[in-house]
Specification:
By secondary structure, this protein is an alpha/beta fold. Strands 2-3-1-4-5-6 form a six-stranded mixed sheet, sandwiched between helices. The protein has 14 helices and 15 strands.
Length: about 425
C-alpha cells in the first residue's frame, strides 16, 4: 500500500513538472497550432484546363518536396476551379475565405480573373497571391493585400518588341493578339517598344479565346509584313500552329512566338515547331542552372511531362509563401505583416533570381526561347524551349521611370 502511495505521489510530481514545462516553454507549434489553410485556384475545365493542370502540379510538387509543413505548422491546401471566369472566380474566392476560412489564396492564371480576385482581397483583407497578368493590378489599381508572383502582361511584351527590332531585324510587324486583358498588355507592350525602336506595326489582329478557325484571320495579314508575332493562349496555340502550316503561311512570312509555343503545348506539335522562336517569357525549361535542372528532373519524374512556365510560377509561389511564413514564425493573424514580409523576400527560383518591387510585382529575368529537340532519360526524344537571349532583372516598367510610365495610363486596345 505504502509503495502504491509513493508511486502515485511520484506520478503526480512528474505530471506537475511536465505541465509547468509546457506552460513555461510552450508545446510544439506543429502539435498544437491550427493548420495553415491555403486556397488554390486554377481553371480546371475549358480551353485553359491544361495550363491550369500545370499550375496545380507545380504547386503540388513544391509542397510534396517540403512535407506540407512550414513555420512549425502543417499546411492544408483547398482547391477551387476558377473556370477562367471572373464571376466564378469571385464566388469561389469568397467561399474559400468565408466558408473554408483560408489564410490566403493563391493562383488564378487568367488575366481577366485578376481584378475579381483583387476585389475579394480588398473587401476581406485576406492576402491574394496571383498569376494573372492584367497590368493595372500592380500599377494603377493596387490593393494592399494583393501581390502578383508571376509576371505582368506587358513585362514580357516589352523585351519582345526590343528583340524584334534589334535582334531579328524586323521592320514591319503584324501582331496576333488574344482579345482579353492579358493579351492586350502583352501585345500592346511589345508594339510600343518595337515602334519606339523604329519599327512599324503593319496591323494588330485581335482574336477571342477559343477561336476555332484561324484561316480568315491569317488571310488578313498585310502583304508587306516581314514578321508575324503570335500571342495566343490555351488550345488556340495549336489551332494557330496548324493553320499557319496547313495554309502555307510559313512560305510567305516569318513568325515568332511572343507568347505561343510553351512546354505544355509542344507535345501536341510536330517537328515543324523545331527552331521556331517559341516565346518571350520568365521561364524556359531548357534553362541551364542547377535550380532549374533539379526542378525539371523532379517534375518529369512526378508527372511524366516537361514543366511549362505556369508550373514553374506555381512552384515559385510556394517558395515565396514558405520563406514568408518562416520569417513570421508561422503567425498569420496580421495580414499586412504577411504582405510587408513577402515584399522583402528574395528567392533563387528555377527561373532565376526573383524579388518584388514596391508595387507588388516581380523583378526578374525574361528569356527569348526557341524550340529544340533533346533526349530526356525518362521521356525520350522531346521538344523543349531553350533560351537564346536573356534580359536580366526586367521591371514591369521596362526601362522607363515608373512615374512617367504610370502617367501614360494602361494599355488599351
Amino acid at each position: 500500500m505504502e509503495r502504491r502511495k509513493k508511486r502515485a505521489h511520484m506520478v503526480g510530481i512528474i505530471s506537475i513538472l511536465f505541465l509547468a514545462f509546457v506552460v513555461t516553454y510552450g508545446a510544439s507549434p506543429a502539435l498544437t497550432a491550427e493548420p495553415i489553410r491555403i486556397g488554390f485556384m486554377a481553371p480546371m475545365k475549358g480551353p485553359l484546363a491544361k495550363p491550369g493542370e500545370d499550375l496545380l502540379n507545380g504547386f503540388k510538387l513544391f509542397w510534396k518536396q517540403n512535407g506540407l509543413e512550414v513555420g512549425g505548422r502543417t499546411v492544408k491546401i483547398l482547391y477551387a476551379d476558377s473556370a477562367c471566369n471572373p464571376d466564378t472566380a469571385m464566388t469561389q474566392a469568397r467561399r474559400l475565405i468565408h466558408a473554408e476560412k483560408v489564410d490566403l489564396i493563391i493562383g488564378g492564371l487568367c488575366g481577366h480573373v485578376g481584378p475579381a480576385l483583387a476585389q475579394v482581397s480588398r473587401e476581406t483583407g485576406v492576402p491574394v497571391l496571383v498569376m494573372p497578368g492584367a497590368d493595372e493590378l500592380t500599377k494603377w489599381d493596387i490593393v494592399p493585400t494583393f501581390v502578383r508572383l508571376s509576371v505582368s502582361a506587358s513585362q514580357i511584351g516589352h523585351p519582345m518588341g526590343d528583340y524584334l527590332y534589334n535582334v531579328l531585324g524586323a521592320r514591319n510587324v503584324t501582331f496576333i493578339g488574344q482579345d482579353y486583358a492579358w493579351g492586350h498588355g502583352l501585345t500592346l507592350g511589345a508594339a510600343k517598344t518595337f515602334k519606339e525602336a523604329g519599327g512599324k506595326v503593319a496591323k494588330i489582329l485581335w482574336t477571342p479565346i477559343g477561336t476555332a478557325d484561324y484561316g480568315p484571320l491569317l488571310a488578313s495579314i498585310p502583304t508587306d509584313t516581314d514578321w508575324v508575332v503570335a500571342n495566343v493562349v490555351g488550345a488556340d496555340r495549336l489551332r494557330l500552329f496548324n493553320a499557319w502550316f496547313n495554309f502555307g503561311y510559313d512560305r510567305k512570312y516569318k513568325i515568332a512566338g511572343g507568347y505561343w509555343l510553351h512546354s505544355d503545348a509542344l507535345f501536341q506539335l510536330d517537328d515543324k515547331a523545331v527552331d521556331l522562336i517559341a516565346q518571350c517569357n520568365i521561364y524556359s525549361a531548357g534553362l541551364d542552372t542547377p535550380e532549374n535542372k533539379a526542378f525539371v528532373k523532379a517534375f518529369i519524374k512526378e508527372y511524366k511531362t516537361v514543366p511549362s512556365w505556369m508550373a514553374e510560377a506555381a512552384y515559385t509561389m510556394g517558395l515565396f509563401v514558405k520563406e514568408t511564413i518562416e520569417a513570421l514564425n508561422g503567425k498569420l493573424d496580421d495580414k499586412m505583416a504577411f504582405v510587408d514580409t513577402i515584399l522583402k523576400v528574395k528567392v533563387n527560383a528555377p527561373r532565376g533570381p526573383v524579388s518584388l518591387d514596391k508595387y507588388h510585382n516581380p523583378i526578374q529575368n525574361v528569356y527569348i526561347s526557341k524550340v529544340e529537340k533533346v533526349n530526356d532519360p525518362v521521356l525520350g526524344e522531346i521538344m523543349i524551349n531553350v533560351p537564346i537571349k536573356t534580359y536580366k532583372n526586367v521591371s514591369q516598367f521596362w526601362t522607363w521611370n515608373p512615374k512617367d510610365f504610370l502617367a501614360g495610363g494602361p494599355y488599351k486596345r
